Amino acid sequence: MTALTHRDILAIRRDRGSSVLLFLTDRCPVGCAHCSVDSRPDSPRITDFALLESLVDELASMPELTMVGISGGEPFVERRGLTLAVRRLSEAGKRVVIYTSGFWAASPRAPEWIDRLLPLTTAVYLSTDAHHVNGQGPERFVNAARVIAGTGVPIVVQCIDEGDNLAVTRASLTEALGPGWPERAELIPTHGLPHGRGSAHYAWQRRTAGRDFGPCDVVDATVVRYDGRVTACCNESVIMGAGPAALRRDATDGPAVGRAVREFHDDDFFRAIGSVGPGALTALPLHRDLADREFSSICGLCWAMTKRRTGGNRHDALLAALAGLTE
């Protein structure tokens, strides 16, 4: 299957309904102080494998899905669950993208099960920064980069752009892959998020009037948790249960997960949030009072609008028309 670059992955995610993110576990052994989902070594993990198998099979059977990302937590702590998901999704022709810290690369050679799994993916996002290095040391990143590159799978390195993080990461990539590392890996600067434990380290830098927010770039792909929860976006707080209840569905089997995913993808309100953006929706009578109100993030404005929705109506002719302006 054709490998994917970071730009390719973003384009698929923005093609509404073409992808989902499978949130495989809450658990992570690294314990970074800035973790946006508050993942810990003792956080909840998969207990109902029958449910996981059902929802993975449902995602594999959905023809409109071309890509499934797998994250957490740290998905590699779930050997059984990750193996099941990657194999079945790849066998169904889905492009599989894994997000990891590389904690599993304690030595230059990866465990055999990981060697077998990586070639089934189309890209691996490998995250690093000072918090990751403090939690697991610099050698694991270097080892992980070498192992992934050895399979021929593209690497997208995500690194928070603060202090000397980017310079240190470039040096680590040079150590791992040589001076020609840009031919085998991409380095994408990111920013810390004020969610989970990250709220103690980061804050939104400024407040913005509601009318000035553009399209949301994360609402076009839903998130499916290992326990059956489906969310309209990948906001970490929403995944963990915060925010308006209308942003979540709790499913008990695969078919219910499939229905929830399609409901979010077909919802005219969320379509409009992703296309013209919530700022444009402040021109509507229902939200006009939010135009001048200032919010710390686009999520705050979205939550305020979502709380005003009544009757769970997913179809609205005016919102559909607005959403169609840029689709």
List the SSEs and their pairings:
Layout: H1 6-14, E1 19-23, H2 49-61, E2 67-71, H3 79-91, E3 95-100, H4 112-117, E4 123-128, H5 130-136, H6 139-150, E5 155-160, H7 165-177, E6 185-190, E7 208-209, E8 222-225, E9 229-231, H8 236-239, E10 248-250, H9 254-266, H10 268-275, H11 278-281, E11 294-295, H12 298-306, H13 317-323
Helix pairs in contact: 2-3, 2-9, 6-7, 10-13
Judged by helices, strands and strand pairing, the structural class is alpha/beta
Shape: globular
Q: In order across it, which strands form the biggest sheet?
A: 6-5-4-3-2-1-8-9-10
Helix proportion range: 25-40%
Largest sheet: 9 strands, mixed
Radius of gyration: 20 Å
Number of contiguous helices: 13
Q: How many beta-strand runs?
A: 11
- Low-confidence spans: pLDDT under 50, at least 5 residues? none
Through-space gap between termini:
27 Å
Q: How big a fraction of the residues is strand?
A: 5-15%
Indicate the mean pLDDT: 90
H/E element string? Answer: HEHEHEHEHHEHEEEEHEHHHEHH
